[in-house]
Amino acid sequence: MPLLEFTSKGIYCKQANVYLDPWKGVERALISHGHSDHARWGSKHYITQKINVPIIKHRLGNISVSGKKYNDAFRINEVKFSFHPAGHVPGSSQIRVEYKGEVWVFTGDYKIQNDGISTEFETVPCHTLITESTFGLPVFQWEDPQKVHDCINQWWAQNHAEKTTSLLMGYSLGKVQRLLKHLDPSISKIYTHGATEQMTQVLRQFIDFPRTEIITRDTTKKEIEGNLVLAPPAVLGSAWVKKLGLLSTGYASGWMAFRGARRRRAVDRAFVLSDHADWKGLISAIKETGCENVITTHGYTELFSQYLNEQGWNARTQKTKYESETKEILAAE
User: Fold this and answer.
1) Are 246 and 304 part of one and the same domain?
2) What is the pTM of this model?
3) Structurally, how many domains does the chain consist of?
4) Whole domain around residue 149: which residue ranges?
């Protein structure tokens, strides 16, 4: 019997009677990070990395949850577990599972690039790796993120000079904070949407961010004019946007590498910036674990698994309820 198995409720460790990122309510759930497709409401008790505790409490409400430090091992029914940095968003983890000398690692979502706000990705040696493959095609190869942040600041500065408001959109957890961390506050004020501001406030206890001002019913177009606004993607085309006045719109996502995605979002500027590993990052992460077996869960699973098999790994695909960031094109996280 495999150490981890895929069931109708999620990834299950029978020896410990726990689930990893379950998509249905269970007795005990180990959670890799705070995005809603991995941290769902309904379980009796949650165990996660310490930084992720206030994140999932903010999102899930009054839950029973305990936090662990990175690399601190704990046992449940003789199974050894530990959380290791995934580099995806603040508090994100890979979950290491060891029983009788066999080691499996569930990556959750991860990226190799340092984003300046998340604990950097850590290689965790294992026999079997369960990996995402959100951007598991050779076409996805990210450039130096600092170049992207420089482009964003230049775009914002030009808009400010022309008294045009810059609306910059990204996921409310992780992406917006990453953008905020690298913005140049000397250009102008930074305003935020309510959903964006709430999550940023949760993370301010761990991360030093530039000052922001939330947009309220009393905020006027004149106040916002020429400044920058951070918001989730769902605001585009909404009544909320109308109060922002003359706009230039920007969207930060790995999917912006696709021209079709850019057209679909109908934004003025597309910034290719992802919180997931690109093709090279996925391959290097897998190689460095020394694993023999690979299970691809969400993303370009079939093509990626086929490539891995051709390279000598024992790879297969597995359907899950994780959404591989595909909904980012259509709505906010």
Assistant:
1) no
2) 0.95
3) 2
4) 145-271
